[in-house]
Amino acid sequence: xxxxxxxxxxxxxxxxxxxxxxxxxxxxxxxxxxxxxxxxxxxxxxxxxxxxxxxxxxxxxxxxxxxxxxxxxxxxxxxxxxxxxxxxxxxxxxxxxxxxxxxxxxxxxxxxxxxxxxxxxxxxxxxxxxxxxxxxxxxxxxxxxxxxxxxxxxxxxxxxxxxxxxxxxxxxxxxxxxxxxxxxxxxxxxxxxxxxxxxxxxxxxxxxxxxxxxxxxxxxxxxxxxxxxxxxxxxxxxxxxxxxxxxxxxxxxxxxxxxxxxxxxxx
Length: 267
Known about the structure:
The chain has a single domain, classed as Rossmann fold (3-Layer(aba) Sandwich). About 45% of the residues lie in helices and about 10% in strands. It has ten helices and six strands, in the order ααβαβαβααβαββααα.
């Protein structure tokens, strides 16, 4: 599964049936485990969202000792934390579960960097120079993740990314495929869901009767409650956490949305 794909090949893979995608994911996971057989432990990155819980289910079919890593930013939706507690009990994950915490809080990051900007924006304090991602992501997620991987000797990381989520991820899939060795991270990176769609993910939930995080009753995403780093953050925050939305809007000096109706569309 290691290789480079053409866009036409990506389109073909995207059109596979769910059964074919599951079989392919199994093959990718097995190959990843084989390549890391002498390279230390492995971990599944889990945000307790719809994609990562499917990834946990897939990986644990072949390696029940895989760490399940949650980078808790401290500003997660309460529905996500309740779902975490449910799944830890339901799937008996306590013995392999690792939860990281950042050295700075989200609000300390806001004081230092400002609120997050859209990733495509290159200006502002709260951005990283290379890819425009918010600096708070580095503090809240990436740095704690790096410390965890070093401390636990992780040689293989499973990540639940989909190529259709952004142009950057599609290009990454075309360059690196589902499995590659990252010199930057110093480990194998395995992304078995790269050719999956949201429809595939929800169908997998139904197929295996996986409980759903109730945060999706409010919005099509999970993550940090006060995040302003995606396109429709105002609609999402106004619907899910109105009081928080009022505070963030006042802090940013932006006008409030009145009688906003949240539309089900990708943010």
